[in-house]
Amino acid sequence: MTQLTQLSQLQSYERSLLRSRLSLTRSDRPRVFTLAGREWDLFDEVFAPVYSPSTTVALELLGLNGVDTEAGSGSFLEIGCGAGVIAVTAALAGYDRVVAADINPSAVENTAVNAERHGVTGRLQSFHSDLFSGLREQERFDTVFWSSNYVMGPESYEYKSVHERAYVDTGYQAHRRFLEQSVHWTAPGGRVLLHFSDRGDTEALYRIADACGRELETVASRRVREGEYGEDMVEHMLIEIRPLAA
To answer: Assuming Cys at both sites, which of 91, 153, 177, 192 could form a disulfide with 241, CB separation 3.0 to 4.6 Å?
Structure first.
């Protein structure tokens, strides 16, 4: 790894942590926000989609960006549900069973409130889980999805809050676990989908996938202008994860 690459990663990681802190304290942080044509409650300590395009892009990549969308069926597991926008929208779009998991207890509660707001409590369950740790052993899903914390932080960094975990993955430890474990939670014919971006370390992701015996394929992508003043063009990718063919 070159010194320039190391500096770029350090700046990205520090900038992401700064964004995490600012998004919790800024005076215009809403209690209710509008996204994808619907209103959503936002709890304290939960990732705020209004300050990042990632949730909107994830909906587009999944084909869930229309209010009247009917894009899915079967079961849908979302890892890292945050305020619940994607999970609730998946339920509204036709998935008959949606499970929404987050390591942040406030996000779990926030998702449950938004499920009630939009009338999908009968089809959506939210629960506290570190990736797949809270799932029942026998559960399987037609779609497993994670819009990941794709910015890599130093493995030695100690999180100052659970909110920082939505922005940075230290040493890509969570990504490694997701690549290793996710394919075991799919039903026959099911898919594992990862929302990643080139603000993350794509080369490292592929190295980890190879070490885990996983094949990655980008099935959709979008280039989006990001930053407080729209100064960065960032490519977002929807990556399918499969066991490496024998």
So the answer is: 192
Report the C-alpha gap between 84 and 37 in whole angstroms.
Answer: 15
Distances (CA, A) of 78 to 90, 104, 240: 9, 14, 14
What global pTM score does this model have?
0.91
Please report which helix (H) or strand (E) contains residue 109, including its range.
Answer: helix 105-117
| Residue type present at position 189 | G
Question: Domains along the chain?
Answer: 3-243 (3.40.50.150)
Helices (H), 26-104: 54-62, 85-92
CA distance 200 to 236: 10
Confidence of residue 68 (pLDDT cuts 50, 70, 90): low
pLDDT at 226: 77
User: How many angstroms separate the CA atoms of 212 and 181, rounded?
Assistant: 10
Centre a 10 Å sphere on the Cβ of residue 34 and count the other Cβ atoms it contains: 10
Residue 119 zone, left/alpha/beta (φ > 0; ψ -120 to 50; rest)? left
Token match 């942040």: residue?
104
75 closest CA partner among 34, 133, 136: 136
